[in-house]
Each structure stands twice: as structure tokens, then as C-alpha cells.
């Protein structure tokens, strides 16, 4: 694979503009050498140069190239984001080297969330693979392509645990579970940073959004978060910690407030927890405009106050900075902000630049000018094979009545729906450096797979939405959603006429890319009405109906579940999405994805998540009782539970075997099951282990994921899957905020989703 090729690290500095007397490397990449180097550099810096290092800005109307050149000249900028070509990056680094006094290299950052030039499935889809090697492939290739574009840092992974499908940013995260999200975050950091963020094809990660952004009240974007310290520590913080333990060099500070304190003003979060308790040595970066927003949050009275609070609370670098540059000089001169606090923030910025190897070679991620790609978007820069493989692994089969799937590559297939041929939508959110023109749509993927074997007919059938207000919202900055000039009825009529000529209908419905993004909360998470009307008309034809869902969040799918003969969740599957979906639909790949978030039946049930606490009056569907915890006007529980996903084969899980009945102290115990492929084809599945502490001083969740393994079994094959259990898996934060294990009985549940599990009991002493 291309990303494995090792190109020469050394770029002859002689080729670059003169470096004057700045002490460029080689410097050993050790903390001691770094501290000495940075201490020396800090002593040479003026106040303005120090403040300049805290500024992260992007080229745009507020900061045109000329203005940035001037700032670079004066040492007033520390890093750049949103510039993604080697030519543009090189031009700015050249300016640093030729114009600035100290020649402190800039670093360059971007949102590389699920790929750079090659777009992989959105993170929520990646989480559906539950597959370490797939995630690491995505991380390595993303880092390779980003570094090949000259970037040094990515704002990823996003590990905000979320139980809120209304929140558009669930598309960027890894779902509702702490353990799964922590695993994903750790693998992303390990694979993106590699052995060292200084390596030619690594980028430094910046885990986000610290902290608990995924718990915004009501799923409403930018809303506040209020939660118990126990829940925060137990459920929301571990994924950030896991990413930091894996070595993430950066942390992006969240926009939300937590228990009344905006994250950028939270010295407990950014200093006590992050630095003192977790020993984080990297850099903290505010999110876009967050320092200014402290005024609107109501914790700062004016800009000076906001700057003082942010810096003193531990925000090192200011993204899209306006305020640090304007107000910090005076605040420091007046002694309102101490020079020690300023130096501390600057030191963190210089430290990460050192760790990125920029003081050894400011052009380390650029290479020689002659090596710049002639065409940034060249097809040869993409990693299509890997993208297709990961996309197939991320799809979740939700329903398959009477083996409707896999389809045969023969006869006539009607491909219908507003998302069936949309290159833009299949890319998903945060795919800015990827090109929609290079994406394979479902229609194209089906054509590729059936060429010469089956007849394909196509009709759009509906607009993604007919709601004018939503169309305007989606098209606010660009023509993201094309609205057909025909009436809805004309489109449906065409689709029905098309469907009637076919043996089977494949209907691609769901959300436009912009519906599951930042700033895109929905109060209604059903398939939009225009597409529901289309599905109803298609259903009425009586033809087998395969619904292919494209969306960035769990949807409420009761109707679609009833209508569909087969239902495949494909999320937003990226550059190779169409080919990957075709692989699954035709059985060239046997689906193995499992849901990383529960799918509710309807919005009114939210939050619906599997690891909830017990109540004093649990509802039992087999023995319904009025005075129990449930909604009386709907079925209870999710439509599809956490961990759920079907296969074209079937699996049987044996009862749980325990290696011992008692776990003592720091010992280990093993829980195992034997899984058998009882169907008639090879297939992969994910074996999930949950624990439950039925009696403790605090109510503990009814179950919590504590282990999983993805296995591949041939037809008829069995495999014993073993899960080690140790003390750490049993700990929780008690009422006094101590992390403890309380001796007693524990339940272990193992299955292929969170609901259908085999159970055993052991004792911890
Ligand atoms: C988002 C961040 C993102 C940043 C830079 C912000 O609006 O909240 O997640 O990294 O923009 O693009």
C-alpha cells in the first residue's frame, strides 16, 4: 500500500530559503531536549511574538493572504488551519523562513475526520465495523494523505459519547457506548500519529471536544450539558482519556458548558483534571470562536475578561483568533494575566511544534518543491481498495425477510430515490478535501457490479425534502441539495412506472449530508415526508422492496421496517460507497456491521440507550403493569438495539463458561462462549461481552460493554471466544467520587447484540 512506502525523511534544507541563525535540528525528540530547546527559545521571544504563537487562524475574507503574510512577518501567528495544498502551505512556511525574526515554523491543521483525499465512511459507520484493523487502515491512510498534503495536525478523533440521535454531530463520533468509543479513539490516535507525530507520514491528533459535548441537552447543537460527576467520570470521560493515553498531542476544548461552566473557562477540566490528574503534556486548543463566546455564555463581562478567563483556565491556543491578539498584550502589560501563565501557554505550542519535528525541518511534511503533485486531486492519490473494504464492513443489515438479500445479478432492478445517484451526499459530513466528483454513487456501484448481467432502471422519485425551510437551510452557503422542478406526484409517478417494470426495487432514502453535520440538530428523526410518500407508493407496487438507508444518525424507522423486505443501513459510506453497497447487496460481501447506537422507535422515547440504570419499577413487556416505567402510547425499548446487525448466515452462541466462579483481588477470570456458524455461508460477526453489578451502593447500569471480538467463521465452523475479566472492568465511581470495586456478585452477558445474550454469574472478593 502506498502509505507504507517509506520516502526519504530528509529534505535538504539547502533547497529552502536561508534559515538565518535559528537553531534548527537535528534535535533529539526527547522531553529533556525539548524542554531545554523551548526554554531557550522562550527567552528570545518578545511579548508580541509569544502572543503570536497562541494564534491559530485560517485564510479567508477576515484574513486574506496578504494580511497573513504581514502577520507572519511580524511573528503574529502560530498556526494555520483550513489550508490543504502543499503549494499554499509551502508559500506560508517560506514566508516564515524569509520574513519573520525568529523563524518559528507554523504548523498546519485540518479536520481530517474520515479521510483526506479518499473519503472513508463517517465515524459512526466506522464504529459499526467494530474492527480494529479497519479503523487503523482508515487512520493510517488518512494520516498519509493529510501529511502528503503538508498537514501536521488533525482535529480528530471526535470521541464525544452521545445518546442523542437528534444531535447532528453523532455522525462524527463513535456512538453511545463508552468502551467502544474509547477503543475507536485509541486506534485512531495510534494509527494517525504512528510511532511519532514527526514522521513524514504521521499527523498529530487533537482529540475533541473536551468534554461531554455529546450530551447537549435535547440534542440541540451548542446547548449546555448538566450531569452528575459520576456519569461524567464513568461514561463520558474515558474515551478522551484513552485517546490521551494513546499519546494524542492535542485536545480541542468543547463549545458547551458543563454544569454551568463553559469548557473554555473551566480550569477544573483543563488544569486539574487534564494536566494534574491525567498528566497531559500536549496542547489545548479552543474551538472556533469559543473564547469570544464566553461573553454570551454569561461568564465574561467583556473581551478582556473572556481572554483572561480562557488563558487562566488553561486554553493554550485560540482558534480563529481575534481576542488573544487584541487583548492579551495589554492584559499582560498590566499584570492582569501573569507572564508565567502566558509563557506556560506558549511553551505548550512550542512543545508540540518540537514534537512534530518542525524544529528539525519546517518542511518535513512538504518534501522538496519538485515533489509536489501536479494535480492535488489526482486519481492516483486515492486509496480506493481500502475505502471499499472498510465501507463494506461498516454496513448494518437491519432486516432481511425471507432472504430477500443477497440479490441476483440478473433480471431487472429499479434503482430509486433521491440519494441513489448523489455523489455529494454519499461523502458525508467533514469531507472537505475529498471530491464528490470522485465518489461512486449507489447507481454507479450497481452498474459496475451488474454490467452485462442485469438491467438497471433509475428514477429519482422524490426530493430529499420538499420542506422549503429545510431546503433553504441546506442550501444556505452552496447548492447542496438540488430541488427537482417537477411536482412530487410527477416524480413518484415516474418512480412507480419504473418500479413496475422491475423484478425488485432498491430504494435509497435517508438524509442529505447537511442534515447530519455540525449545526444540524433535528427535532424529527424520521425519513423526510417526501421520501416516505415515495416509499409508500413503491410498496404499493407489490414488488420486493430493498431499502438502502443513507444517513448520519439513528433514524426512527418503524414505518420503513414494516414496508421493507430488506433494510440495509449504509450510513454515508464515502468515495467508494456505491461499490461497497453493491458488494453487500449482491452478497459479494456478507454484512457484519453492528449498531454503535440504539435506534429509537420515535423521538419521544429519546434518550434510548442500552446501558441505562435500573428503576424501582422496571417494565416487563411479558407482564405489563400500569405502574411501571414505560410510555403507554408506544412499544417500549429501541426498534433496533445497540450491537444489533444481521448477516446472510446465522450464528449460534453457546452458554457462557467461566474459568472460575470467583475473581479475587487483582486476579483474572475468563468468560467464554463458543460461536457456531449455523448457516450456509462464511460470515463475520461481533461477539460482545457485557457486565452488570446487580447490587452496589449506587444503582449500576443494567449492562455495560466491557469487551468485544470480531470473528470470521466458515460455514459450519465453531470458535471459542474468550474474554478476560479483571478488577478494572468492575470499577465504578461511587457517591464520594472514588473509583472502587464493591465485592459481591456480577453478571456477565455475552451475545451478538445487547439484548439476546447468554448469562453467567461470578463473585468478586
Ligand atoms: C467544530 C470543530 C472543528 C472546527 C474547525 C468547529 O466549528 O466544532 O469540531 O474542528 O470547527 O473546523
CATH superfamily of the domain at 382-596: Glycoside hydrolase family 3 C-terminal domain
- CATH level 3 topology of the domain at 382-596: Rossmann fold
Major beta sheet summary: 8 strands, parallel
Let me know the number of strands. Answer: 27
Estimate the mean pLDDT confidence.
96
What bound compounds does this protein have? beta-D-glucopyranose
Instruction: Give the second-level CATH assignment, the architecture of the domain at 382-596.
Output: 3-Layer(aba) Sandwich
Low-confidence stretches: 1-20
Number of helices: 22
The proportion of residues forming helix, as a percent range, comes to 25-40%
Describe the structure.
With 765 residues, the protein is an alpha/beta fold. The protein contains 22 helices and 27 strands. An 8-stranded parallel β-sheet has the order 9-6-5-4-3-2-1-10. A 6-stranded mixed β-sheet has the order 11-16-15-14-12-13, sandwiched between helices. Strands 19-27-26-21-22 form a 5-stranded mixed β-sheet. Helix 15 crosses helix 22. It is globular, with a radius of gyration of 27 Å. The N terminus is likely disordered. The structure holds beta-D-glucopyranose. The site of beta-D-glucopyranose has 6 residues, from loops.
Amino acid at each position: 500500500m502506498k502509505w507504507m512506502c517509506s520516502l526519504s525523511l530528509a529534505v535538504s534544507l539547502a533547497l529552502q530559503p536561508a534559515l538565518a541563525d535559528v537553531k534548527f535540528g537535528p534535535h533529539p525528540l526527547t522531553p529533556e531536549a525539548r524542554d531545554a530547546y523551548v526554554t531557550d527559545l522562550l527567552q528570545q521571544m518578545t511579548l508580541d511574538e509569544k502572543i503570536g504563537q497562541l494564534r491559530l487562524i485560517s485564510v479567508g475574507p477576515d484574513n486574506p493572504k496578504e494580511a497573513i503574510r504581514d502577520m507572519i512577518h511580524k511573528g503574529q501567528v502560530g498556526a494555520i488551519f483550513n489550508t490543504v495544498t502543499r503549494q499554499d502551505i509551502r508559500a506560508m512556511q517560506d514566508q516564515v523562513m524569509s520574513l519573520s525574526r525568529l523563524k518559528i515554523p507554523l504548523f498546519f491543521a485540518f479536520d481530517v475526520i474520515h479521510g483526506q483525499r479518499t473519503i472513508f465512511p463517517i465515524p459512526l459507520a466506522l464504529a459499526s465495523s467494530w474492527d480494529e484493523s479497519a479503523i487503523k487502515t482508515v487512520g493510517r491512510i488518512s494520516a498519509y494523505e493529510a501529511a502528503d498534503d503538508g498537514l501536521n495536525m488533525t482535529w480528530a478523533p471526535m470521541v464525544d459519547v452521545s445518546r442523542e440521535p437528534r444531535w447532528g454531530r453523532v455522525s462524527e463520533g463513535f456512538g453511545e457506548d463508552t468502551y467502544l468509543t474509547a477503543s475507536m479513539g485509541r486506534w485512531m490516535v495510534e494509527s494517525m500519529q504512528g510511532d511519532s507525530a514527526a514522521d513524514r507520514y504521521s499527523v498529530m491528533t487533537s482529540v475533541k471536544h473536551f468534554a461531554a459535548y455529546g450530551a447537549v441537552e435535547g440534542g440541540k447543537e451548542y446547548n449546555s450539558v448538566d450531569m452528575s460527576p459520576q456519569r461524567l467520570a464513568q461514561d463520558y470521560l474515558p474515551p478522551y482519556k484513552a485517546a490521551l493515553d494513546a499519546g494524542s498531542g492535542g485536545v480541542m476544548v468543547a463549545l458547551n458548558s458543563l454544569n454551568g461552566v463553559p469548557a473554555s473557562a473551566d480550569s477544573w477540566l483543563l488544569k486539574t483534571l487534564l494536566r494534574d490528574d491525567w498528566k497531559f503534556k500536549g496542547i489545548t486548543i479552543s474551538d472556533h470562536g469559543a473564547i469570544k463566546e464566553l461573553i454570551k455564555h454569561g461568564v465574561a463581562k467583556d473581551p478582556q475578561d473572556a481572554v483572561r478567563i480562557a488563558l487562566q483556565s488553561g486554553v493554550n491556543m485560540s482558534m480563529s483568533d481575534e481576542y488573544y491578539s487584541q487583548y492579551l498584550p495589554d492584559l499582560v502589560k498590566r499584570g492582569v494575566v501573569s507572564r508565567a501563565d502566558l509563557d506556560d501557554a506558549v511553551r505548550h505550542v512550542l512543545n508540540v511544534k518540537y514534537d512534530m519535528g518542525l524544529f528539525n525541518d519546517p518542511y518535513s511534511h512538504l518534501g522538496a518543491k519538485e515533489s509536489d503533485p501536479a494535480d492535488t486531486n489526482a486519481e492516483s492519490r486515492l486509496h480506493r481498495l481500502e475505502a471499499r473494504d472498510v465501507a463494506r464492513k461498516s454496513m448494518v443489515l437491519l432486516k432481511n425477510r425471507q432472504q430477500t438479500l443477497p440479490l441476483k445479478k440478473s433480471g431487472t432492478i429499479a434503482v430509486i430515490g433521491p440519494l441513489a445517484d448523489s455523489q455529494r451526499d454519499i461523502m458525508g459530513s467533514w469531507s472537505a478535501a475529498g471530491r464528490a466528483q470522485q465518489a461512486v454513487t449507489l447507481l454507479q456501484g450497481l452498474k459496475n457490479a451488474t454490467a452485462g448481467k442485469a438491467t438497471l432502471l433509475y428514477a429519482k422519485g422524490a426530493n430529499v425534502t420538499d420542506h422549503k425551510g429545510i431546503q433553504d437551510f441546506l442550501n444556505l452557503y452552496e447548492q447542496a441539495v438540488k430541488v427537482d422542478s417537477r411536482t412530487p406526484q410527477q416524480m413518484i409517478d415516474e418512480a412507480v412506472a419504473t418500479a413496475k417494470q422491475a423484478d425488485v426495487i432498491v430504494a435509497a432514502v435517508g438524509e442529505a449530508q447537511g442534515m447530519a453535520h455540525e449545526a444540524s440538530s433535528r427535532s424529527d428523526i424520521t425519513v423526510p415526508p417526501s421520501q416516505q410518500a415515495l416509499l409508500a407508493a413503491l410498496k404499493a407496487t407489490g414488488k420486493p422492496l430493498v431499502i438502502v438507508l443513507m444517513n448520519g444518525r439513528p433514524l426512527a424507522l418503524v414505518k420503513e421496517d414494516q414496508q421493507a423486505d430488506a433494510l440495509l443501513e449504509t450510513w454515508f459510506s464515502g468515495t467508494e460507497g456505491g461499490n461497497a453497497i453493491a458488494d453487500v447487496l449482491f452478497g459479494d460481501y456478507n454484512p457484519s456491521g453492528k449498531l454503535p447506537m440504539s435506534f429509537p422507535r420515535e423521538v419521544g422515547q429519546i434518550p434510548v440507550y442500552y446501558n441505562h440504570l435500573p428503576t424501582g419499577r422496571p417494565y416487563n413487556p411479558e407482564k405489563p403493569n400500569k405502574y411501571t416505567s414505560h410510555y403507554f402510547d408506544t412499544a417500549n425499548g429501541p426498534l433496533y438495539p445497540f450491537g444489533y446487525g444481521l448477516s446472510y448466515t446465522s450464528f449460534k452462541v453457546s452458554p457462557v463458561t467461566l474459568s472460575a466462579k470467583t475473581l479475587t483481588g487483582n486476579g483474572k477470570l475468563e468468560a467464554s462462549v463458543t460461536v457456531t456458524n449455523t448457516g450456509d455461508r462464511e460470515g463475520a460477526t461481533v461477539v460482545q461481552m457485557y457486565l452488570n453489578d446487580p447490587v452496589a451502593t449506587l444503582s449500576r447500569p443494567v449492562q455495560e460493554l466491557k469487551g468485544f471480538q470480531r470473528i470470521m467463521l466458515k460455514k459450519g465452523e465453531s470458535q471459542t471466544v474468550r474474554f478476560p475479566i479483571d478488577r478494572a472492568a468492575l470499577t465504578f465511581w461511587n457517591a464520594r467520587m472514588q473509583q472502587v470495586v464493591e465485592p459481591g456478585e456480577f453478571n456477565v452477558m455475552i451475545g451478538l447484540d445487547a439484548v439476546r445474550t447468554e448469562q453467567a454469574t461470578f463473585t468478586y472478593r
